[in-house]
Amino acid sequence: MTRHLLCLSDLGAETITKLLDHADRLLARRKSAWPTWASLMAGEGVDDGARRPLSGKSVALVFEKASTRTRLSLEIAVVELGGHPVFVSSSTSQMGRGEPIADTSRVLSRMVHAVAFRTSSVERLKEMAENSSVPVLNALTDASHPMQLLADLQTVRRVRGRLRGLKYVWIGDGNNMANSWVEAAGLLGLELVVACPAGYEPDPAEVNRAKQRGATLSIVRDPLQAAAGADVISTDVFISMGQEEEQAQRRAAFAGMRVTAGLIERASSEVVVLHCLPAHRGEEIDAEVIDGPRSFVWDQAEARLHTAKAALTWALEADE
Fold first, then answer.
1. DSSP per-residue string spanning 104-163
2. Which of 9, 73, 120, 306 has its CA 20 to 30 A from that of 153?
């Protein structure tokens, strides 16, 4: 059976934990294998364990939306696992001229071993997977961002030593990231508080599903209330790609939702501040917070590489 990763529920709690364990091993191996200047001058090569589970395999990175971290992490992940990444965009393929996703998917299935698809529409993602005989990984839709959440979870676990027993807080738009945090809370049994303006809540169906699965989940309007005793505080831009026409409306709606130093003072002294990037300092988060001592945003960005490797090896059943 083809292993698609369209949402975190395709993994389940046990597999999420196994992927995070694998990502931790990959991170440690990469850092220990990195050569020093002295070793390079001595003519010593890079020893990364010579593990290449994707040797001889190609992965199509099909992106209909711009990206920095997702593209970098996936492209480098495929290369370091021994495979060959093939980047495909709408502007450089027949997708830009209206070729059906189903047809593109069938062609890709005959040539590559996996597909990472970044698109706005969850319907297009599903169509890609339904017509693919190779694994399809969700590299972002407007509904969810599971590969980012894996990186977020790895970061929290490495900093705080565990995932359960912490208070997670999402502040801002109930967007794809918020939906994936809600899904993760349900799968892993986490306590999650979402602070957002009225009309900008996460997907109600996802919220109900998470509660049924055992999440302790609440939605509030006051970010200061939400931040009290928080162990993890996450946020994202208030105006995402494709929402530029809503700028004035969104800026008014999200006034008071910025993650400030005063808000962080209400959290745990060991709070982990996260932002999936890109960030607009002074809009959804203050510079002194994202660049401050409780920010683990750069660890979070780096984790995209290690969790991408773990997800790819799982999807291709190339687990070490």
1. HHHHHHHH-SEEEEE-S-HHHHHHHHHT-SS-EEE---SS--HHHHHHHHHHHHHHHS-S
2. 120
CA dist 57 and 59 (Å) reads 7
Q: Tell me the pTM.
A: 0.94
Tell me the C-alpha distance between 69 and 67, whole Å.
6
Query: What pLDDT, in 10s, does the model give residues 76-98?
Result: 999 999 999 999 998 888 988 89
The 10s digit of each residue's pLDDT in 205-249 is 999 999 999 999 999 999 999 999 999 999 999 987 667 778 889
Q: What is the pLDDT of residue 241?
A: 65
How many other C-beta atoms can be found within 10 angstroms of the C-beta atom of residue 191? 18
Question: Distance (Å, rounded) from C-alpha 114 to C-alpha 58?
Answer: 7
Strands 136-138 and 114-118: parallel
Sheet harboring 167-171: ordered strands across? 216-220, 191-195, 167-171, 232-235, 272-275
Question: What is the predicted pLDDT for the residue at 97?
Answer: 87
What residues act catalytically? Answer: 118, 145, 148, 236, 276, 304
For residue 240, what pLDDT is reported?
Answer: 76
Average pLDDT value for residue range 4-33: 96
